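Researcher: Next sequence.
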Amino acid sequence: MIPATTSRITKAGLPPSKSHLIRWMLLASQGENAVRIEGVGGAAADACAMRDALIELGVEIVEDEGTWVVHGVGAKGFKCPSEPLNLHNSATSLRLITLAVTRVGEWVALDGDATLESRIDRSFWKSLGIGISFDVDGRNLPMRVRGPIEEDSLTLNVSKTSQHLSALLLSMPASSNPLNLNIEGKLVSRRHAELSFSLASKCGSSNTIENPVLRPWRCEPPTNVQIPPDASHVAFWKLYEVLHNSIIDWPGVDDVDAIGAEVLHGLDLMDEQTIDLSDANDLITPLAAALAIGAGGRIVGASHARYKESNRIEQTRKMLSAFSLEVEATTDGFRIDGGQNPKSPIECVPTFGDHRMQMTAVILATKVGAEIEGARLHEVSFPEFLEYIHP
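Model: Next structure:
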């Protein structure tokens, strides 16, 4: 049971961006020198899963307070791990690592938790022309892959996730030939894909998101990298502000580093409005709660939120209803009446194995109290979250 908080939050932090950190670790590992990655204190479990997988692949990563030093092994220096690589809850890490290990040329096993298993797109992996097997009938994990990738052209649907495009781009340092892409569908989470191209360009890539041809490049990352705060978590503090009619001070994040979450900058939830989450579907659950308590409105452009750890559209509706907050699900978001008041749930609040669902429920519980499923789910992206809630 999480009781209603007895103290008001006036200052809160943000975790390091796991989107930046996961990509930088993979890029750093493909160089041939040491890369000092700073600003990793309080790193998400997702990022730690990527770190641990790279270590299993033979990459030395030295940890110091707030800093990880990655000693690159070169584009083709990964070793075959002796045990399955467990990516736990991190779909980004799984998708990037699965492409990366095809260069090993031997069977590599990968595993993860139940929410990760549901996010495996078998058709994509089979389209690569690599060896692939699923060890348990009817299940997507564990899975085993063996490269190399022989295809020089590929049809890629980007309407559900941009991460396969990022995975292909960040695997090109190990490739000998260009890869021609036939892109299908409207690119979702475009800002995350743009992040991959931007970071790759800092390491020597000339590839652009507009060009359907991905070309190999020599990966030469900078020797020092600073990880920015994760702007998507500002949504939880904005929900807290609306819920308690208060103001919280949190670290600023430049728009260039916000990867879609800049939609939150200057957002007044006491004005009825339509919010487009085409590039920031991770915000959907806390923003739905905030609009219900605030002035209401619509959330649009978030159909790809159905393919996250949970179906975030349907499951957000169910979770919020436990607090007597009603939102109407649409194909790509919600229609929401404002001016609603949360009530204490009579049963344990379901969070469907989804860390953003759990954190939204915790914020609501600071007003009305609640028993909430998944006591440690927040560690997936924000290990220090509860320390701010109950200092």
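Model: The first helix runs from residue 18 to 29. The chain is about 30% helix and 15% strand.
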